[in-house]
Amino acid sequence: AVVSTQSTGGTVSKMMIKHQFNHQYPLLRKEGIKTVVEEVKQRVQAKSAKIKWYKKKQRIYFDNHLFETNQRVFYRRLDASFPSSSVDVSTEEMEELYRV
Predict the structure, then answer these.
(1) pLDDT tens-digit profile of 60-82?
(2) For the chain, how far is it from start to end, CA to CA, in angstroms?
């Protein structure tokens, strides 16, 4: 397929877009749009999983470095991430809860 590489007025021709899609997603002609959409969804999910993994590893590295360099700040951050419960419960409610 001969594709013109010239654009008209800053817009890309439909022929170029179609050619790019056919080149990027060869299943489009054979299987159809639903298959390509599903493939793109799976690619996005895979990239998302990689980003989550990277962020988790980055957080672990940061925590390890903070523990090695400044343990006081590390433990303060650790305490801040698990807030203590400050719920006021009356003795009657406690007795009612634990009454068997």
Answers:
(1) 999 999 999 999 999 999 888 77
(2) 80
